[in-house]
Write a structure and sequence with these properties.
Oligomer: single chain
Helix content: 40-55%
Number of helices: 20
Order of helices and strands: HHHHHHHHHEHEHEHHEHHEHEEHHHH
Strand content: 5-15%
Shape: elongated
Distance between the termini: 75 Å
Number of strands: 7
Length: 566
């Protein structure tokens, strides 16, 4: 059989498509009604304030989902009505369109105007200026309409393709089998294209761009001349191999000259910082071994405290989580981290196994070496992770609280993700009456959750060592977004709520899922103490986990003020 030319393929498609077209008929009455309802619900308060264009995007996607739900419901209702002889007929449906159009237009105008007030309430909840520019907000329904129309057009194109394939198969198999097979084939093609071509191509493009960015160096960051740092004299990890975030981590070490005035007479040392980049060694195992070699070379295993730090997708470690340890211990500290990706966390979360493998490899290598040291002279081993980094460190101990408390001297996890295995188990096992946003487990004997320093005292019961602290804001979408949010009301919306979650926020099936997903885009665009920003809280958390002899609450407050002023 000769290969099909483009013209022959076009003729074949036209023959099997028959009268079908992409836009074959007017919009569904039920779909339009439900799309309007979903649009209005998408404008109700969420966790964080949004820019007008982001709200328009969220509303458009949500309206398209609503249209699909409404169209399916209408189709099922009409089929039932025809069977029972109660179908009002096309004339009655046509007469209802002016009513629907008027009500829909009125609802869009009224709810869009009201949503500006909701946005002001949400902005107040996260300590932001409540002003919302009405002339920008008026564009929300127009952006939503364009997005919804494009998604609807794409859906109808898929439906047309399914009809063509089913019609072609209908000559050989029964019609139900033809439609089922056609639907399955088109679904396989779409999944194959999205995952095998679009997604993989997009990931390659993003990773390529990210790898180029990874070769840059932030202004003001220079190669160190201290032997206590990776990339410095005698280092087995060349400066150029550390990557952009690795060079930031090493180059922002707190110098001894800065530590001395704060130490107030204590002996001060040059802090140890070890970092291994993707370019430092070929395999994960080799990079983890290199990290241990660097800790040996720099004297990291002879310090008072040794922190294994999980990184985010790009290899970033937040200075607000690392510098407090250096000040508290007057430089008698060692921090070690390892890069596992070039991709930012919002992309690398799609391949989160890399984070888990890297966290486990680094922790196991450091822990194995640490165990060989004399028990009375080895450093206190602690772990730290923020966002995807917390996931990496949790999986490093098998997601087990008993393993965490037996194998480490404490842990600090900030803004955990919904995938975090230990966080998920602890939260599920919380005591009755404790809210999901600040759970209490086993009377707080080993682990506590905090958004403000006063939370460390909840519950009012003994807190033994080693201690684990979770920092999580009530308005942090990184924590609360999950696929299950589409169909199940979350416990964190129960009463009482976290102080930074709007009382007006409600859960709606499918709608809230997209709302919180869009909140992820603005998670860092809020003041400290809200969203995914934790400000000086790591300072007080480290003071709870591992404070030096003689360290007081006044020292913690002094350090927090000092770091905030920099």
């Amino acid at each position: 059989m000769p290969p099909r030319t483009p013209a022959r393929v076009k003729d074949w498609a036209r023959r099997h498509a028959g009268p079908a077209r992409v836009v074959r008929r007017a919009p569904s009455w039920g779909g339009t009604a439900m799309a309007t309802a979903f649009y209005c619900l998408s404008l109700t308060p969420s966790l964080l304030p949004r820019a007008w264009w982001l709200q328009g995007l969220a509303a458009g996607v949500t309206a398209a989902v609503g249209y699909a739900v409404g169209a399916v419901l209408e189709s099922a209702t009409r089929a039932l009505a025809r069977r029972t002889g109660t179908d009002p007929g096309p004339g009655a449906r046509r007469a209802m369109w002016p009513v629907l159009g008027t009500l829909a237009a009125l609802a869009v105008v009224v709810v869009t105007a009201r949503s500006a007030g909701w946005q002001r309430e949400v902005r107040r909840a996260v300590a932001m200026d409540p002003h919302v520019a009405w002339w920008q907000w008026m564009w929300v329904p127009f952006v939503a309409a364009v997005i919804a129309a494009l998604l609807l057009l794409a859906a109808r194109t898929v439906r047309l393709a399914t009809r063509i394939v089913a019609h072609a198969l209908g000559a050989h198999v029964p019609r139900p089998v033809a439609y089922a097979t056609g639907t399955a084939l088109i679904a396989l093609v779409i999944v194959g294209v999205v995952q095998g071509f679009l997604l993989s191509t997009a990931l390659r493009v993003v990773e390529s761009a990210a790898s180029l960015t990874d070769q840059g160096t932030t202004e003001g960051i220079v190669r160190p001349d201290l032997a206590t740092l990776s990339g410095g004299p005698g280092s087995a990890t060349p400066w150029d191999s550390l990557g952009a975030k690795g060079r930031d981590f090493i180059g922002s070490v707190t110098p001894r000259t800065e530590l001395a005035p704060f130490a107030e007479g204590r002996t001060v040392k040059d802090p140890v910082r070890v970092y291994v980049g993707l370019r430092s060694a070929d395999t994960l195992k080799e990079r983890a071994a290199l990290a241990v070699l660097e800790l040996d070379r720099t004297g990291g295993f002879s310090r008072k405290v040794l922190a294994v730090m999980g990184t985010t997708g790009t290899g970033w470690v937040n200075d607000q989580g690392s510098r407090p340890l250096e000040y508290m211990w007057a430089g008698d500290s060692a921090l070690v981290a390892m890069q596992y990706s070039y991709l930012p966390s919002w992309v690398s979360v799609l391949t989160e196994d890399e984070a888990a493998d890297a966290g486990r490899a680094l922790f196991d290598a450091v822990h194995d070496k640490w165990q060989t040291l004399p028990a009375d002279s080895r450093p206190r081993l602690v772990v730290y992770g923020e966002s995807l980094g917390s996931y990496a460190m949790e999986t490093a101990v098998g997601g087990s609280l008993s393993a965490l408390t037996s194998e480490t001297g404490g842990a600090l996890f900030i803004g955990p993700t919904y995938s975090n295995p230990l966080w998920k188990k602890i939260t599920a096992d919380r005591e009755a009456g404790s809210p999901e946003w600040r759970p209490v487990v086993d009377r707080g004997v080993a682990v506590r959750f905090a958004q403000v320093p006063e939370d460390y005292g909840i519950p009012n019961a003994p807190w033994r060592q080693p201690r684990t602290v979770y920092l999580q804001n009530g308005s942090d979408p990184v924590i609360w977004w999950s696929p299950g949010l589409a169909f199940h009301q979350p416990d964190w919306l129960d009463r009482p709520r976290a102080r930074d979650v709007s009382p007006a926020m409600q859960w709606y099936p499918l709608v809230t899922f997209w709302q919180v997903a869009c909140d992820l885009a603005g998670a860092d665009s809020v003041p400290d103490g809200y969203g995914h920003r934790y400000g000086a809280m790591p300072t007080s958390a480290w003071a709870q986990i591992t404070r030096p002899p003689g360290w007081t609450d006044a020292d913690t407050a002094r350090l927090a003020d000092h770091l905030a002023a920099q």
